[in-house]
Amino acid sequence: MARVALLSNPRSTGNRALLPRIRSFCAEHKDIFHYEVEDVEQIGAALRTIARVKPKVLVINGGDGTVQTALTEIFNGGHFGDSKTGGGPPPVAVLPNGKTNLIAIDLGADGDPIAALERVMELARSDLAPHIVSRELISLSGGSLAQAPVLGMFLGGAGLADTMLFCRNKIYPLGLPNGLSHLLAAFAVVTSILFKAKFLPPRPTPIKVSILRQGHMQGRFAFMMVTTLSRLLLKTNVPATGASRGALQLLIIERSPMAIIKALGAAMFGRLGRLKAAGVHLERGDEIRIEGDHSSVILDGEMFETSRGFPIVLTQTAPVPFLRLAA
């Protein structure tokens, strides 16, 4: 039995420079089963093979699309058997190998991917139980999606989706550090509220966001985020609020410069969710509906779109085991 199975996507942007180091590391550690796919469509077959070696830990090395597809296959594919009969997937670790690395950061993997892999190996040689955490996933269905639900852990919508696309298409090609790129994108959002220009993110389309049994909000929002992560943008902890105990955390910021500035300031000082601010809404639920006419959302890097009469529906899955690398 391999202690660690590593699933790599060589075509992800981060792996263009990283993969030679990953291959060298695996060659030196015979208890790693390394499987490389040529396309995300091969991830299902890869996981079927990985399940046969029964690893203690499954590590995902790829961009947002790789992580999303792997999580969907892990949960829906049944490759590792049923936890009710003693099976179930091994705990999952994610190497910091994307532009935002939100899932990796949430699990304590930040910085050098090789260092994170070394930490995984260290934990795999000992009792994993103290380092395993459970996370529900977001299950997205409806909208323009004409297939089985897609699973992920971070969704951006409204102005945030437009900003993510603006950052991906306009700022990342400049080759700037990720932190600076995200800062410029945030500045562009605030500027786009005050001024109209072709080089700024577009004005968000109106949407209606409903939380099951809790009401709804409607309008043009600068920022909408749904996640099951514990650590969010700017590495801020967002506590549970309200009576609902749902795993889906919803953050909406209204389209005003003051609301955005207050939210960013609260996030930087770890007070987001603790500090009440006009125009900033933080809720929890177990089902969220997003309605609008051709409004985009991005789930772990993949874009989906609402259409009139076909809302996007987000629900939470059963918990999935993950490996937390931080001490």
**Based on the structure given, which CATH architecture of the largest domain is correct?**
Sandwich
Which stretches are low in confidence, meaning pLDDT under 50 for 5 or more residues running? Answer: 234-238
Strand content: 25-35%
Radius of gyration: 20 Å
Report the helical percentage: 25-40%
* Physical arrangement of strands within the biggest beta sheet: 7-6-17-14-9-10
CATH topology-level name of the largest domain: Tumour Suppressor Smad4
In DSSP terms, counting alpha (H) and pi (I) runs of 4 or more, how many helices?
Answer: 8
How many separate structural domains?
2
- SSE string, helices as H and strands as E: EHEHEHEHHEEEEHHEEEEHEEEEEE
Distance between the termini: 26 Å
